[in-house]
Every structure is written in C-alpha cells, then in structure tokens.
Amino acid sequence: MKSTAETWWVYMLLCRGGRYYVGISNDVISRYRAHQRGKGAMFTRLNPPEQLVAAAPIGTKIEAMRVEYALKRGSRLERIAWAKSLQTANHLPTFGTATDRRSKRN
User: Taking the domains of the chain in order of start, what are their residue ranges?
Assistant: First the structure.
C-alpha cells in the first residue's frame, strides 16, 4: 500500500476494546507497524491496533487530511460504513462485526 511519496492514504485501524482509529500516511503498512510498536499516535499507544480494516488512496496530503477530518467528525457508524464500502469495492479483508455491538458510541 505504498505508491509514490505523493500519494497519501486514509486508513482505519481496529484497536483494543473495539475502538477505531483513523489516520493518514503515504506508507500505510509502515505506519501500521509503527502503531503496533507504540511509535504512533497517543491513542494507539493506549489502545494498540489489532487490525488494519480499511485504507484508501486519496492523493495529496492536504486532501487526505480533509478526508481524515471528515471521518473523525462523523459518527462511529459512518466510519464503519466507510470501511465496509472500501472492503466491498476493493475486496479488502472481511470486516469484523463483533465490534458493531458498540454502535451507539462515537
């Protein structure tokens, strides 16, 4: 999931406790590994990632930041729907529904 340094991605992680994290990177796999090693955001240090559930190439860093911001402002259900739509369109790994039990939480 790395193309050129100019292509930025928005990604979503399923973290411990069924929480989700949305971030951006120009190298999603390396960023995911950094999160796993505790070198990522404070949120993922406190809630270690368990799975990369979605990633979408966006374009520039500014565009990726805008999409990330919109996802973070949306509800939990909207973020889950975004991830599911990417998995359907891009044949990404099956989305775990066990965490949907917390659907009322943002």
Answer: 8-93
In whole angstroms, what is the distance from residue 24 CA to residue 18 CA? 20
Give the contacts of 16 (CB within 8 A, at least 6 positions apart): 47, 48, 49, 50
| 48, 13 Cβ separation under 8 angstroms | no
Task: Evaluate if pTM is beyond 0.85.
Answer: no
Over the stretch 29-50, which tens digit does the pLDDT of each residue have?
999 999 999 998 899 999 999 9
CATH 1.20.120.350 fits 8-93, yes or no: no
What average pLDDT score do residues 17-37 get?
A: 94
Q: Apex CA 43: angle with CA 38 and CA 46, to 5°?
A: 60
